[in-house]
Write a structure and sequence with these properties.
Layout: H1 10-32, E1 42-45, H2 47-57, E2 81-83, E3 86-90, H3 105-141
Antiparallel strand pairs: 1-3, 2-3
Helix pairs in contact: 1-3
Subcellular location: Bacterial flagellum basal body
InterPro entries: FlgB
GO biological process, one term: bacterial-type flagellum-dependent swarming motility
């Protein structure tokens, strides 16, 4: 454990950076496949995973994920693609074009912009966090 990792939130900030990077790749893939027939846009839900992990870390027990009821042992489990704690899913709600593609370029570019801003905010927060400790260390040298 590094000296700069004294805050328990620090590791979650790094996980969030990984998530934002992965989400940027998924959105870029959606934009790249805007003309691919029958392509469905993909996204990742990492916020609920991160909230659950932080609740466990800080002693809160409230779950943010609704569990599916299983009334028979013969039921199939829901199909999910889990990656690094997040769940990759197909983003729905947009009308498919005649070729079956449901990528909306306006939605994808706005999601990419929001994701970029959140990534930059995380990087800035981590830099400030390290800067505070570096300033404290440098200040104690003069005492």
């Amino acid at each position: 454990m590094s000296f700069f990792e004294v805050s328990p939130v620090y590791k979650y900030a790094h996980k969030a950076l990984d998530y934002r990077s992965m989400r940027q790749d998924l959105i870029a893939g959606n934009i790249a496949n805007v003309d691919t027939p029958f392509y469905k846009p993909r996204d990742i839900d990492f916020e609920s995973y991160l909230a659950n992990a932080m609740n466990e870390e800080f002693g809160r027990s409230r779950k943010t994920e609704l569990q599916m009821a299983e009334t028979s042992s013969r039921h199939l489990s829901p199909l999910e693609e889990r990656v690094q704690g997040g769940t990759i899913f197909f983003r729905d709600g947009h009308m498919a074009r005649n070729d079956g593609n449901s990528v909306d370029l306006d939605v994808e570019t706005s999601e990419m912009g929001k994701n970029s801003v959140m990534y930059q905010a995380l990087v800035s927060a981590l830099k400030k966090h390290k800067g505070i400790f570096a300033y404290a260390i440098d200040s104690t040298k003069n005492i």
